[in-house]
Design goal:
globular; Uridine Diphospho-n-acetylenolpyruvylglucosamine Reductase, domain 2; alpha+beta
Length: 340
């Protein structure tokens, strides 16, 4: 365990923003977190930033505090019932690698979430989701270390207050816990989610009528690689904005003016989810570039760093996009990416 001072974060955030942290260290268990409290000077350890894959964060300035990189690894089957497997993964496991492990072992439920960047520990914080599936659908429980109380607490699904790209760890408990391990309840008999038209199209293209969980995963991987930029080549954090939820009555009114506006059903019959990428495209932002900050040419939902953009430049672009959507559609977009 090594403590770094004035540590460059450029390689540790998927936007590739060139900022630094006052202190940076890695931890592979909660005991090392305790040791870090002893060796990091002053009070910068009191409210550290726990870093996963750095794939859902936009740094707008140097971080004048402590960043602790979670590298807790390990995957194991902890329980099995007639219908389910309970699988536990260290919070530092790479999310996509964990999904591939589950598919290799025929643990069903996470296949639609293939190729999402980040780590296992970040998945419940954000309640990550794609193509009709969210973490809450397969979540069992997690263990988290309370940074001030120095205790390990177990959270069940009801404790996490999951919402659309949201959880208690983004609200009341923000920056209070370091997630150590996450457990998922995965199925022995797959309940495949293929209702998204683009998945059906991808399967049809491959002449697959009775897909396996691997077929679904491969379809999702093909879709994501075809329209989402690789952060290793073009800096980005995936979807920068959430798909907005609006009242069904408002959606019907918008549909009168914009007949092709895409809307998707939600858990509540009173609300409709609108594709934020479509809204952004309609306002002419798709493919827009100002210096090295831009809106991706294939997926308007993704803001990109073409090389040397600052976090402030990307944030400023997001402000302009939000204002234009509000002006044209009366809908306020919300950022999915965490801004620091």
């Amino acid at each position: 365990m090594q403590l770094h001072e004035n540590f460059s974060l450029k390689a540790w955030n998927s936007f590739g923003i060139d900022v630094s942290a006052r202190y940076f260290a890695r931890f592979s268990n909660w005991e090392e977190l305790e040791q870090l409290k002893e060796i990091i000077p002053n009070k910068t350890i009191e409210n550290p930033l726990i870093l996963g894959g750095g794939s859902n964060i936009l740094f707008t300035k140097n971080f004048d505090g402590s960043i602790l990189k979670n590298v807790i690894r390990g995957i194991r089957l902890v329980a099995e019932t007639k219908e389910h497997f309970i699988v536990e993964a260290g919070a530092g496991e790479i999310w996509h690698e964990f999904v591939m492990h589950c598919i290799d072992h025929n643990y069903a439920g996470l296949e639609n979430l293939s190729l999402i960047p980040g780590t296992v520990g970040a998945s419940p914080i954000q309640n990550i989701g794609a193509y009709g599936v969210e973490i809450k659908d397969c979540f069992h429980s997690l263990d988290a270390y309370h940074l001030k109380d120095k205790t390990v607490v177990q959270f069940e699904a009801k404790d996490c207050l999951f919402g659309y790209r949201d959880s208690i760890f983004k609200k009341e408990f923000k920056n209070q816990f370091a997630i150590l391990k996450v457990r998922f309840q995965l199925s022995k008999q797959p309940n495949l989610k293929t209702s998204y038209g683009i998945i059906e199209q991808e399967l049809a293209k491959k002449n697959i009528s009775s897909p396996s969980i691997r077929d679904i995963s491969n379809a999702v991987i093909s879709i994501r690689t075809s329209k989402l930029p690789d952060p290793k080549i073009i800096g980005n954090a995936g979807s920068f904005f959430k798909n907005p939820l609006i009242a069904k009555t408002s959606f019907e009114l918008l549909k009168q003016t914009y007949p092709t506006i895409p809307g998707y059903s939600t858990d509540s019959p009173e609300f409709v989810k609108i594709a934020a990428g479509w809204l952004i495209d309609q306002c002419g932002w798709k493919g827009y570039r100002k210096a090295d900050a831009g809106c991706h040419a294939l997926q308007a939902l993704v803001l990109v760093n073409y090389g040397n953009a600052t976090g402030s430049e990307i944030l400023s672009l997001s402000h302009e996009i939000i204002a234009s959507i509000q002006n044209k559609f009366g809908i306020e977009l919300e950022r999915e990416v965490n801004i620091l």
